[in-house]
Q: What sequence folds into this?
């Protein structure tokens, strides 16, 4: 085993942005631990698929244990797993609330705590949290309180962790996307969704993966919330 080859953990990795991130890191010769509830085994010996709900600490423990057992290190963690429930505030159910907290916050907390413990042993590491531009720029007609509550918390945690671990060689950043063209959005909705962005189009998966890779290589950048949102956060 070449323990010097870098290793990334990616959550929410079975489709959309997560699958794009797996490819982007493999293209840069990273080994990858890929997690999602429904992920299938990988035919690539340098990609280990770990199925399970990242909101469950036991799953997070299994992901980190696989990374160390198979590849000997963890260099980057991308907290990509997340859910978005668009409903009027008074229409949210207790289950909606519980689901958003479980995936968006518990899923971040458990895996990040465990990964940082390993990164501290190495004296290096990088965390990237995928949040949302809606935290900074709410849009009329796109009800997003639970997204803002949870992903806004991740933006704040990004800065807090960046300062806490700056002197220990661990960087923490976030990417805050606009609406990205993924299987989550039906093709017939693309026109309306494109109109939510000042540049007049939806984002592509590559727009997000390029931002994550940039942050991963930018050694002097930490505590940054990088908006990849077609100008949404700047205004209309």
A:
């Amino acid at each position: 085993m070449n323990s010097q080859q870098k290793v990334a953990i990616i959550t929410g990795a079975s489709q959309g942005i997560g699958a794009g991130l797996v490819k982007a890191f493999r293209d840069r010769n990273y080994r990858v631990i890929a997690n999602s509830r429904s992920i299938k085994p990988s035919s690539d010996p340098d990609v280990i698929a770990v199925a399970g709900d990242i909101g469950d600490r036991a799953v997070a423990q299994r992901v980190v244990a696989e990374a160390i057992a198979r590849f000997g290190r963890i260099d980057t963690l991308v907290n990509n797993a997340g859910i978005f429930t668009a409903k009027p505030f008074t229409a949210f159910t207790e289950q909606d609330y519980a689901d958003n907290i479980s995936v968006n916050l518990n899923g971040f907390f458990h895996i990040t705590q465990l990964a940082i413990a390993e990164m501290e042993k190495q004296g290096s590491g990088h965390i990237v949290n995928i949040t949302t531009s809606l935290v900074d720029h709410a849009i009329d007609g796109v009800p997003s309180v639970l997204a803002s509550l949870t992903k806004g918390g991740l933006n704040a945690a990004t800065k807090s962790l960046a300062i806490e671990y700056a002197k220990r060689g661990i960087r923490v950043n976030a990417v805050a996307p606009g609406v990205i063209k993924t299987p989550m959005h039906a093709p017939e909705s693309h026109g309306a969704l494109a109109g939510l962005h000042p540049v007049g189009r939806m984002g592509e998966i590559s727009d997000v993966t390029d931002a994550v890779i940039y942050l991963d290589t930018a050694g002097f950048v930490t505590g940054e919330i990088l908006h990849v949102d077609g100008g949404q956060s700047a205004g209309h």
Strands lie at 7-11, 31-36, 47-51, 76-79, 125-130, 170-177, 225-228. The chain is about 40% helix and 15% strand.
